[in-house]
Design a protein that fits this description.
The chain is α/β, with parallel strands linked by helices. The protein has 19 helices and 20 strands. The longest helix is centred in the last third of the chain and has 17 residues.
Amino acid sequence: MNHVAPAFSPQYLRSRMGKVCVAIIGSNPAEMIDKAEVAARENPFLEFRLDYLDKPLPALPKLKTFLAERSEVTAVATCRRASAGGKFKGKIADELEILQKAATSGFHLVDVELQTAEAIKAAELEKLRARGAALIISYHDFAATKDLDGIFERIRPYEPEFIKIVSTAKNLADNVAMMHFLERTHDMANLIGICMGDQGIISRVLGLRAGSIFTFAAATPGEETGPGQISARTLRETYRIDQIDLSTKVYGVVGNPVRYSLSPAMLNTAFRRETVNAVFLALQTAKINDLLTLVREVPIHGLAVTMPLKEDILKHLEKTDPISEKIGACNTVVRAQDGKLYGFNTDVAAVVRPLERRLQLKGAKILVLGAGGAARAAVFGLKEKGAEVFILNRTTADGQKLARQAKARTFRRDQLTKSQFDVIVNATPVGMHGVKPNHILEPKEINARLVFDMVYNPIDTPLLRMAREKNIPVVTGVEMFVNQGARQFEIWTGKPAPEEEMLRVVVHALRQ
């Protein structure tokens, strides 16, 4: 095909673009322009989602004025039809009319979905290109990540200036497929590749170094135009997307669910503060083999392991520290130079240290509520320090099993009102944001010198509130959470952790 050359060459556009394209939405031009004004201050590369407008065509003169006044903005016009996952209800001819008008209104690039390109005559596409904007041909798969090379070959004959392929990650390994695809093909075209969904965050942050020219971001949290999209500020500040290169080490919190984990905010802050070239991601999976693919292929340098993988990971480790072996649970993994994995448990120190600062553990009488992974860390850790440990668990058999293994004792709930402890530790999820029921003990059952709740979200749990009402000092889950994260940071980097900074960012996030 002999195309009319666009007014803006891909090289020129690439020099203007930057790494992050912020998607701008709004139901009318005034709202869209307001949002664009704000976004452009920090990020002048913008995608205007014209399909979000009630009436896209009459809005274009106003957008033209905005672009004429803001010459630093590089603008993409997108009017995605409902059949391709957009909001535009009109026909293909209407979509093309809007994009043609956008191309003559100062937009530098227009995005046409592959389904549209395949449905129209070549002359129609040429008519659009003759308006001077560069062409992005895009493909979105909202169900899976499959046949990326096949889609690429379908788009190539149109010779667009940019090719955009967006799939959905159903597991962590789908990100690996996307990144390998980018590595294979980025020399053949100006390529943008992303996986959507909660599990696609890896491709959004690491896709650039695999060969994606830019990535998309939401203007603000709550204005995502695709599942799993991250806000521009979070991409810049938390993930430091502008600094990621081939030598950036990748770490992550793995488990299910980890979508709302505060570990990425906390550990990325620590990396930034101590100038470590590393990035920390939320890796959502319940399948150990999915995780191992990622660890091998990306490669991942270290992991914070949460439910439900703390026990499953053990058999894939070369070696663990004695406490992980004893507990049968590991929450911290390091990948050595030879690619082998080594395990540690920082939960234990994170239970023991805050208590040691406040009382003598040898001989202390401590009640632990629960018998899961967190409870195991508490029981074994406190026993090792010479405490007398009692276990109260809803399912008696699980409590008895842990008591046998750790040489602790079980305790019955009906004895609580007439018993006195040095410390009561909650190692269950009761009281956690979104977990029912929300309280585990009645006020009259809380007879202790100190109450420690491992739940960190919310900061002020029902158990801690009850303890405070009885004037009992407390240890918050936030203190434990930061403590275990700080030990992880030290294991991974060999540097002392900036604990105060880490605490500040966690408390700030929880208060939000």
